[in-house]
Amino acid sequence: ALAMFDAYPHITNSSPELAMDRAYCLAYVGQVEQGSSAFQAAMPKAKGEIDRVEKMSRLLEAKDRVDLDGSLIRLLLLLDEQNPDALLLAAKRDNDYGNYQSAVESAERGLTLDPVNIGLQVQKARALYGKGAKESAESQLNALAKANSGNVEVNLYLSILMAGEKNNMPMAQNFARGAHVWEVGSRRTVNNLAYVYIQSDRPELAAGETRSVTVLHPDWGDTHYWCGVALYLQGNKSDARPYLQKAIELGVPKAM
């Protein structure tokens, strides 16, 4: 991909979106600082490209460059502070890193712009949970689940919280399966389903969900990780080793 971008620089340079894609490729192949710098340089001319920013954010996390990821999200908020989707991503990433107060602030700012945004409501509840207001957060998420039974975000994060506490694991599995059904082929939902199965002491189900996905998506380090863990927990250490080694090579994002 980099060779294609560099073969036609006049096209790449004329499109900030393509410049962002080239920068992502640079970071992906190991030129992380150069890629991050080029990506941020293109962002002012490509406002609203939240999906591209999130993809880059997760790559930087996988590369263990939390510092660059943080500066990326700060620039996003500076450029797009009135965009609820940008505030949603900022709240999500702050939650992923345990910066719960910042997550609450971003979610609340987003909700002033879009009061019915379910994603922002979910991230606010998630942050409150992280801050220790567990009963309030669970109540909010359960209310959202009743009103929005098919919403991926609600089901995903309810299953994560319940599995983390090992609270009502059959229900946690239902929420995780629901999220995976409603977001077919999703990286985050298959990994979350594997996590919930492992927390439920069902590693054989986790291995069953992830093994074929690692063939379809050989670059998903986190899926290799969960497959390796599942196999290891079943006692298949020799089978687990190549999956865990691949996860180390690719890098594993810490969050769903």
Describe this structure in words.
The protein is mainly alpha-helical. It is built from 16 helices and no strands. It has helices spanning about 1-5, 10-15, 15-30, 30-40, 50-60, 65-80, 85-95, 100-115, 120-130, 135-145, 150-165, 170-180, 185-200, 205-215, 220-235, 235-250. Helix 10 runs antiparallel to helix 11 (about 150-165). The longest helix is centred in the first third of the chain and has 14 residues, at about 65-80. The protein is globular and about 55 Å long. The mean pLDDT is about 90.
Distance between the termini: 27 Å
What percent of residues adopt helix (DSSP H or I)? over 70%
Report the radius of gyration as a whole number of Å.
19 Å
Q: Largest sheet, described in full?
A: none
Q: Count the strands?
A: 0
* Helix-strand topology string: HHHHHHHHHHHHHHHH
Mean pLDDT value = 92
- What amount of the residues lies in strands? under 5%
Question: What is the tally of helical segments?
Answer: 16
Low-confidence stretches: none
Shape: globular
Structural classification = mainly alpha
